[in-house]
């Protein structure tokens, strides 16, 4: 592993790399939390707006605010036609710039393992959600093999090029999530597994997706052309042993929800 931070600076590249996955898992997650229409939403760590799009499309929010520390990601989100009415704020999940009880729901999609102090992040979500409201998240099962590009990260590590890692990978474990939600004073805590698959038409599409994304893309960028070409073929042999055809990857996320208790 390496302590180098994961950099989120390319909204379009991130969308191809992870935004598609976020929406695949997000569809299941959104149906599970079953929000009512006309509610006040906060999307914590909204990034380039991948999950924010689902909220805007399907949940008819009264208001929708997305926060993220990456201005580059927010700039990409602001350009999306579906998100023109969304308020995007450059902010930190651990110090939300909102008053108490300002929202009916706060969600954290694929973010909690990036929060240096997850307990503070969950406490902040609980603080800004009104009594009776929902605090929920979903995260790749990082330590249990649920990350969609785990074959890539394992192969990179095998050749001495470990990928940047989030600061709190343990926060995706069910027992840790449960403790975080309970410690924040949330009630009616429920969890579920979300399993998804994604197919790439061929190896070229898959490889170009890697190059444009964070984490694996950062590791590949440190290689010279010969090293990158050699790794490309090494990874192809692992993912596409037949030599051609589509590539299908599987991923698993852990989801949690809880209710802010009444006064």
What does this structure look like?
With 263 residues, the protein is of the alpha/beta class. Strands 3-2-1-4-5-7-6 form a seven-stranded mixed beta sheet, sandwiched between helices. The protein is 38% helix and 23% strand.
The name of the CATH architecture of the domain at 11-145 and 165-198 and 250-259 is 3-Layer(aba) Sandwich
Largest sheet strand order: 3-2-1-4-5-7-6
Q: From the alpha carbons, calculate the radius of gyration and give it in angstroms.
A: 18 Å
Distance between the termini: 45 Å
Instruction: Write the element-wise H/E pattern from the N-terminal end onward.
Output: HEHEHEEHEHHEHHHE
**Broad CATH class of the domain at 11-145 and 165-198 and 250-259:** Alpha Beta
Helical content class: 25-40%
Mean pLDDT: 92
